[in-house]
Structures are given as structure tokens and as C-alpha cells.
Amino acid sequence: NNNSNIRTYQGITYDITDPKYQGLSKNALKRLLKDEVWNATRDQRNKFQKEKKKRKSAERRKLIQEGVIPPPPPKRARTEIEPSPVRVVVDCSFTSYMHDTEVKSLQAQLVRCHSANRAGLHPMQITVTSFDDALKHAFEKKTPTFTNWKNIEFSTEPYLEKFDTSKLVYLSADSDNVVRELEDDKVYIIGGIVDKNRHKGLCQKKATDQGIATAALPIGEYLQMASRKVLTVNHVYEIMIKWLETRDWEKAFLEIIPGRKLKDSKLIGEEEEEEED
Ligand code: SAH
């Protein structure tokens, strides 16, 4: 029987005398076959994923039609959009302080900055500096088109190589200075770090050592926060975008700071108003 060398493994048939299978241990053979099955079923898997995506978006459309979930916000008319001259740097030089999962979070936060920029009336020019391999890999895995994104530049260089020190303002919750207005000719640096407050004062110290101005968002002037006033990169960015649109910090804080963080916080000025009436 000339078929005696033919075996099957998970639905694929193979010839045991094929030179590529020679000299392999039972386990090594199994691994190789497993890889071959995996590769052979790629098209099938892709097709399945595509159909799943199609099904999901059809379900979404139906739920929107039935009023179960709100429709996505309308796209802004191109003519409404007026780019802001205010610039933002996200200083990503801290990946060595972060766990893998935190690098992934930072990537997700940068995606949110980009979305806020696209949804905002006054998008800012973002420069991601000290963009290293760890963060780059996270982008390549999750959002490989990032290199084509508008209004955002990814640079391996540190910000000192790219901007005039006198224009830089490092945003930090630990600063004694407070931002009153975002100024057109300034470059505001957001520390690109997710650290669950392990490294308190890290960005403030870096900026002071470099002789760069620092400033905190004026949260304390509007809100008596029950929790710490340290926000995530995307929330800081979204607050800036909201302020450019409304010129109203209180509105920006209330809209962007998540409810769980605002819980038990008080609006400053509330008490006085109560006394008045
Ligand atoms: N331990 C970090 C905290 C990172 S929070 C640190 O040393 O700063 C991420 C970044 O968001 C900060 O680096 C800062 O640029 C910005 N940020 C967060 N809360 C802020 C606030 N209340 N005012 C100004 N900037 C803030």
C-alpha cells in the first residue's frame, strides 16, 4: 500500500517520510504540525473575524435605530475646525519606570488624545517625544496606522532637542504654579507615564532640574477633590481641548474628570451661593 506513509493530524494529511519531518522527536513533530495547521487555517480565521465584525456592527446599527444606544456624535464640518497654535508634548521617557501593562495603558491613553484631537474644535499639534521601542511595539500591535495620524508626530528625540526651553511648561500636579490660560506660543508638556502614583513628583523634579517652568491645572480653584488631583495623560489632554473650546475650566473639569474621581468632591463656591439665598 503506497498510502501507508500518510497520516492525518487535526484534519490535515501529511507524509511521514517528508524530509522536513525526519529526525524530529514526537513532540517536535507535533509542534511543527500544529504550526502548519495554524498557518493553513489563517484565511478561515480571518474570514471568521471579518464576519464577526460585520455582525457586531449590524447589531450596533440596529440598537441605534431602536434607540437603545445613542448614535455616535456627528462629525464636525471641516469648516468649523480651527487648529489651535497651542502645542503639546507628551514626554514618553519613563517606560523604564513602568510595567508592561502600564506601557499598554499609555498607548491607549495616547489613542484617546488623538481621538479628542479629532473630535475637538481646536485640535492641537502633539509631539510624542522620547518615543522608544517599548511604546512603539505597543502601537504596532494595537494601532499600526499611527504613523499616518494627523496632528501627531512621534519622535525618538527628547523635547529639549526640539523646542526652545523658554517656551516649555511642564504640567505637573505637584507644581506650586497654576495655569490660568493656555497661551498660544507655549508648548505644554504632559508626562507620558502611567504609574498609579508610585513616582510622586517625578515630572516636577525632572522639569526643575532642567530649568523648565512647571504648572498645575487649576483644579483646586474649582473643585475640592476628595481624591488626589493627579489625572491621566488623556484626561489632561481632553481638559485642554475642552478649555480651548469653552474657555471655562470648571466646565472642562466637570465634563472630563470621571465621575468616580469626582465622587464626594465639592464645587468651590457652592457654599457661598447657598448662604446668599
Ligand atoms: N507621577 C507622575 C504622575 C503622572 S500623571 C508625575 O510625576 O507627574 C500623567 C501626567 O499628567 C503628569 O506627568 C502631568 O504632566 C499631567 N497631570 C496629571 N495631573 C495633573 C494636574 N492636576 N495638573 C497638571 N498636570 C497634570
Structural write-up:
It is an enzyme of class 2 (transferase). Its EC number is 2.1.1.221. This is tRNA (guanine(9)-N1)-methyltransferase. InterPro entries: MT_TRM10-typ, MT_TRM10-typ_sf, TRM10/TRM10A, tRNA_m1G_MeTrfase_euk. It catalyses: guanosine(9) in tRNA + S-adenosyl-L-methionine = N(1)-methylguanosine(9) in tRNA + S-adenosyl-L-homocysteine + H(+). The protein is built from nine helices and ten strands. The C terminus is likely disordered. Helix 3 runs parallel beside helix 6. It is elongated. The chain folds into two domains: 39 residues, no CATH class; 188 residues, Alpha/beta knot. It is 40% helix and 13% strand. It has 277 residues and is α/β, with parallel strands linked by helices. It starts with 5 loop residues before the first strand and ends with a helix. A six-stranded parallel β-sheet has the order 5-4-3-7-6-8, with helices on both faces. The protein has a two-stranded antiparallel ribbon with strand order 1-2. Strands 9-10 form a two-stranded antiparallel ribbon. The structure holds S-adenosyl-L-homocysteine. The site of S-adenosyl-L-homocysteine (SAH) has 20 residues, from strand 7, helix 5 and helix 6.
